[in-house]
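ingest -> validate -> predict -> emit
validate: passed (alphabet ok, no gaps, 276 aa)
predict: started
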Amino acid sequence: MDKGVIMQSSGIVVIRGGGDIATGVIQKFYRSGIKLLVLETEMPTAIRRSVSLCEAVYLGAATVEDVSCACISSLTELDNCYEQGVVPLIVDPRGESIPRLKPLAVIDAILAKSNIGTYKEMAPITIGLGPGFCAGDDVHAVVETMRGHDLGRLILQGNAQPDTGIPGEISGIGAQRVIHAPVAGEVRHIRNIGDILNAGETICEISGEAVKAPFKGLLRGLLREGLRVPPGMKIADIDPRLDVDWRTISDKARCVGGAALEAFLYLVQRMGVVYE
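emit:
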């Protein structure tokens, strides 16, 4: 791209995904006055639903902290959302609306641990969160999502750290924090997000089989009731910190969100992108 060239772009930033980490990204861009469009699947499977704007797919609208999101059915509804100060979300898992929209940037915040359809030519600026993307190849920049010293680091050439399959430790607890489905079936809630559970208490049931808390902790995330899951799928998240605020965006999501905004602004000036 020639530096300083005016791009024929809508000036909108598309964010693929509306889960808890993506919501941290959305808030940073929203507060910066940047127009957004969120793309989601027909049936989002966010665990931390209380801080995930993708809940708008099921409810029609969702609010996390100071950001409200509305599920729309057509791109013709975008201007109405912007006038109302609401972030629009549309069901479009394959990104079919992107060529029509001609966005300024596309940020893949799906966190699928692999690239499931984002490529550099989608927009003047493309950013991928976490493993599965290669900066300089399929995206312009990658944001590190692994907990630790490098969390939120911008990668302009190469890859993020590979997925270990083991959650980062919180208060000395790692893998046990994440609860997986023991069998296939439909999720039926016994407890709710925000509840404090003792070790051995039942969180939910799947096909009549009880899913129990492995230690005393705060139920921070729980898959939406009624969804059918395969065995091994992540269905709940327990935090050993009993006083954590489960209603607000997490420290990790804020860090990754800030890094995504930094990457966007850095690439705008580095690549000389000027948009109308």
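The chain is about 15% helix and 30% strand.
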